[in-house]
Structures are given as C-alpha cells and as structure tokens.
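Q: Joint fold for the lines below.
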Amino acid sequence: MSPRWSFKPGSFEPGSFKPGDFKKDEKRSSAEMTEMDTRHAAQDKELEEALRNFRMSVHAWSDAAMSSPRTVIAATRASVWRAAAGWALGCVLVAGIVTGGVFQHQRAEEQQQAAEQSRRIQEQVAAHTNEDSDTLLAHVDSDVSRQVPAAMDPLASLVGGTE
Amino acid sequence: MTMASAETIAAEEFARVAATYRAQIYRYLLSTTRDVDLAETLTQECLLKAHRNWAGFRGESSALTWLMRIAINVLKDHWRNRRMQFWRQTRTNAVDADEASDWLPSQESSPEQQLLARERVGDVWRAVEKLSGRQRTVFLLRYVEEMEISEIAAATALSDGTVKAHLSRALGRVRTELGGKR
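A: Joint structure:
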C-alpha cells in the first residue's frame, strides 16, 4: 500500500518559513539555490524514508502484539497480592479504630468514676467542716457570753427615781 | 420493528465496527504508550465506552474518527488518574525507543541498510518522546494511522489549522532529531 502522504523537494511546510526568507532567497545565487534544493531534497527523502519505516515498524509491532497470546498470570498474581495487602491494611485500620474507641471509652469512664469519687469526698469533707464550725461557734457563744446591762438601764432608773 | 430486534441489529452493527477498527485503535494506543498490556487494557476500555454510547453515535463523523476520539479521551483519563495516584506504585511495561524500533520488518536490503533504517526509526521514536501530548497525538494519527487532517481535527476536537500547526512543529522536531544524527 502506498502511503497517502508525500514530500516534494522544496515543498511548502507551514511554520518552516520566517518573514524575510523570500528576500534572502532573491539575493542568493542560483548555485546556492541549487545546492540548497538538493540538500532539502535529500533531507525530505530521508525524512520520508524514516517516517515510512517508522509506520511499518509500528504496524508490525502492533500486529505481532495483537496476535501473540496474552499473559495475565503475573497481573492476576499482582492484583491478588494487592487485594490481600489492601484487605490486611483495612483490617488493621478497622481493628485500630475499634481498639482506640474502646480504650477511649474505658478511659472516659474511669475518669468519670474518679471525678464522682472525689466529688463525694469533697462533699463529705465540706459537711464535716460545717458541723465542726457550728459546734465551735456554739462553744464560743457559751464561753464568752455574759449578762450585760442594757444600754438604757441607768437612764431608766434615774427617770424612775425622779418620778 | 420491535425493540428487541432493533437492539440486536445495533449490537451486531457495533460488533462489526469494533472488529473492523479494533486493530487501529490498539495500534494508536500502543504507539502512544509503547506498553503492550496497557494498550490492550485501554483498547478494551475504549470499546466498552463506545458500546455504552453506541446509541448516541449519529454518524456525523466516521466510526473510526468517533472511536479514535474516545480512545484519545480514555488515554487522557488514564494519564490524569496516574498523576492523581502518584502514591500508587504502578507497574509499567513500556519499552524504550531502541526496543520499539526493533520491529522493522526485514525488507530486501543489506544488513547495513537495515541497521541504518532501524537507527532512523529509533530517532523518530526519540523525537516522538519529546513531543507534547497534542503534537504526539496529531503526529501519530497522521504518520502511523494515515488519517486526513480533517479526520484528525474531528478526532482531537481541534481546528484544521491547529492540527496543521501541531503537525508542522512535530515534523520539525523529527527533522531536527534526524538531522542531528548526521
């Protein structure tokens, strides 16, 4: 099958020319032009040949690869191993999460119990302290208190004696 | 025509199209990835997508152009996913340029000429390696699949002018690569 693409020596290729190239070409001698054309022709021929070989090699490779039997054993093993590793990692993660959760829960319960206990102790201590202070105040009252005359008593007796 | 018979006809039609163009799709994906297994996987993926969307194919372009467009998108998705999953160690079977150029069919020429031709094909592979994604796509569709500019434009969703520009740059690179070896 002949290729659909072709290269003509000196043919226009988009992007390969720069502004001013045509002016330069005018100045060039005919000998230079002929030499350049020959060089371009050789390059294009070589490029054409290389691209044709490239296409043929890709076609041959593709045909050979398509007709050869597929080997999927390695891929299966790899996928099984990967799946097993994935499952193992997943199990470890789940176990870690569950253990962590249980540990956290137990710790929280213990802390709650300790807090409850310390609260009770504080309440008891506070109750004892209140009782003691009441008794002490009663003692103080009874010990230091004495009958004192009322503040207006002397004046009242004077007023009563005058009448 | 009943619904079931219409579906059967569509399925048969798709099977015929898939059988006709499978090799071309595979070849394009192989030349882009240089990985036999990956090309096979992506070809399957492309045909699966095409099968799912077969009812939506209106025939505005040729079936090959339509399939090629799907293949290009499948390939884009693949590279994007690989970039996103950089943490995942992916096994690649991609061969290098020298190995890829070994597939030159032996013609009636001297061993020296064959060696030279193989070297030149290797140079073209190396030039293709250096091309940007779009340039590579356009170059391979043109010079391996021998598609017309308008077909390439339809497959890549680019204008004819853009395709020509990419093609020109790609050809320039190949020419430079070949010229540099001289």
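Q: Anything notable?
A: Chain A has a mean pLDDT of 75. The helical segments of chain A are 21-27, 30-67, 73-144, 153-162.
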